[in-house]
Amino acid sequence: MQDPLALHLARRARNLALDALNVEDADPETLRDFARAVLLELAALGLVRGGEEVGCWTAPRVPGH
Questions:
Q1: Cα dihedral 44→8→23→38 (10° resolution)
Q2: DSSP class of 26
Q3: DSSP codes of every residue in 37-51
Q4: What is the widest separation between alpha-carbon atoms in the chain?
Protein backbone atom coordinates (compact mmCIF):
# COMPACT_ATOMS: atom_id res chain seq x y z
CA MET A 1 0.00 0.00 0.00
CA GLN A 2 1.33 3.43 -0.97
CA ASP A 3 1.66 6.17 1.62
CA PRO A 4 -1.00 8.84 0.89
CA LEU A 5 1.34 11.67 1.88
CA ALA A 6 4.05 10.40 -0.48
CA LEU A 7 1.51 10.17 -3.30
CA HIS A 8 0.29 13.70 -2.56
CA LEU A 9 3.84 15.08 -2.63
CA ALA A 10 4.67 13.15 -5.80
CA ARG A 11 1.57 14.60 -7.48
CA ARG A 12 2.61 18.07 -6.34
CA ALA A 13 6.12 17.56 -7.75
CA ARG A 14 4.69 16.37 -11.09
CA ASN A 15 2.36 19.39 -11.24
CA LEU A 16 5.40 21.63 -10.77
CA ALA A 17 7.37 19.62 -13.39
CA LEU A 18 9.94 18.61 -10.77
CA ASP A 19 11.82 15.35 -10.54
CA ALA A 20 15.11 14.07 -9.19
CA LEU A 21 16.77 14.49 -12.60
CA ASN A 22 15.98 18.18 -13.12
CA VAL A 23 16.20 19.63 -9.62
CA GLU A 24 19.55 21.31 -10.34
CA ASP A 25 18.02 23.19 -13.28
CA ALA A 26 14.66 23.98 -11.66
CA ASP A 27 13.49 27.53 -11.15
CA PRO A 28 14.19 28.71 -7.56
CA GLU A 29 10.57 29.83 -7.13
CA THR A 30 9.31 26.39 -8.14
CA LEU A 31 11.66 24.74 -5.65
CA ARG A 32 10.51 27.17 -2.96
CA ASP A 33 6.85 26.32 -3.70
CA PHE A 34 7.55 22.61 -3.39
CA ALA A 35 9.62 23.03 -0.23
CA ARG A 36 6.82 25.12 1.29
CA ALA A 37 4.26 22.40 0.47
CA VAL A 38 6.47 19.71 2.02
CA LEU A 39 7.14 21.76 5.15
CA LEU A 40 3.44 22.55 5.60
CA GLU A 41 2.60 18.85 5.45
CA LEU A 42 5.39 17.99 7.92
CA ALA A 43 4.19 20.76 10.24
CA ALA A 44 0.66 19.39 10.05
CA LEU A 45 2.06 16.08 11.29
CA GLY A 46 3.88 17.87 14.10
CA LEU A 47 7.29 16.85 12.76
CA VAL A 48 8.57 20.42 12.23
CA ARG A 49 7.51 23.77 13.64
CA GLY A 50 4.57 25.40 11.90
CA GLY A 51 0.83 25.82 11.99
CA GLU A 52 -1.60 22.94 11.98
CA GLU A 53 -4.56 23.06 9.63
CA VAL A 54 -7.86 21.26 9.51
CA GLY A 55 -7.60 18.44 6.99
CA CYS A 56 -3.93 17.76 7.69
CA TRP A 57 -2.33 14.34 7.30
CA THR A 58 -3.06 13.45 10.91
CA ALA A 59 -6.63 12.83 9.73
CA PRO A 60 -7.91 11.46 6.41
CA ARG A 61 -8.19 14.12 3.74
CA VAL A 62 -11.29 14.70 1.70
CA PRO A 63 -10.72 13.28 -1.82
CA GLY A 64 -9.85 15.97 -4.34
CA HIS A 65 -7.67 18.08 -2.01
A1: 0
A2: S
A3: HHHHHHHHTTSSSS-
A4: 35
Q: Report the distance separating Cα 44 and Cα 27, nearest Å.
A: 26
Measured CA to CA, the distance from residue 16 to residue 9 in angstroms comes to: 11
Nearest-angstrom CA–CA distance, 56 and 32:
20
pLDDT digits (tens, 9 = 90+) for 13-64: 999 999 999 999 999 999 999 999 999 999 988 889 886 554 555 554 455 5
Q: E strand or H helix at 8, and its extent?
A: helix 4-15
Q: What is the pTM of this model?
A: 0.71
